[in-house]
Design brief:
119 residues, alpha+beta, Aspartate Aminotransferase, domain 1, 6-stranded antiparallel sheet, 4 helices, globular
């Protein structure tokens, strides 16, 4: 997966904006001010950290060597995915979708409904 494609997919999510709160890297994708993806893009291969259900996070780590516990994040709730081609793109997109949904689910109901109506 190329950076431009990854970035476009993240930006396609309702209410998403990019931020660089930690300096020039990583690019942080946020929805209503809450992080759902952190992309390290200056090195090859790309790496993306995504929020994940804790039980599913373990399954993914056991299934794919390119998925590790979140780098500098809560290791129970975040995975860091090395985009080296070993994980099918559909699976990466599914992980992004899950991360976005988990964060949206944690927002106040009014903000959730606002996002739904903007899609």
């Amino acid at each position: 997966m190329h950076f431009d494609d990854l970035r476009a997919y993240l930006q396609s999510k309702a209410g998403t904006f990019e931020d660089f709160p930690f300096g020039p890297e990583p690019l942080v994708a946020k929805v209503r001010g809450k992080m759902f993806a952190l992309v390290s893009f200056r090195k090859s291969p790309l790496r993306i950290s995504l929020k994940c259900d804790p039980n599913y996070a373990i399954v993914l780590r056991e299934t794919y060597p390119a998925i590790q516990a979140g780098y500098h994040l809560n290791k129970r709730h975040w995975n860091t995915v090395t985009l080296d081609g070993s994980i099918p793109e559909e699976e990466v997109l599914k992980m992004i979708d899950q991360s976005y949904k988990l964060v949206v689910k944690s927002l106040p109901k009014a903000q959730q409904q606002n996002l739904e109506s903007s899609q």
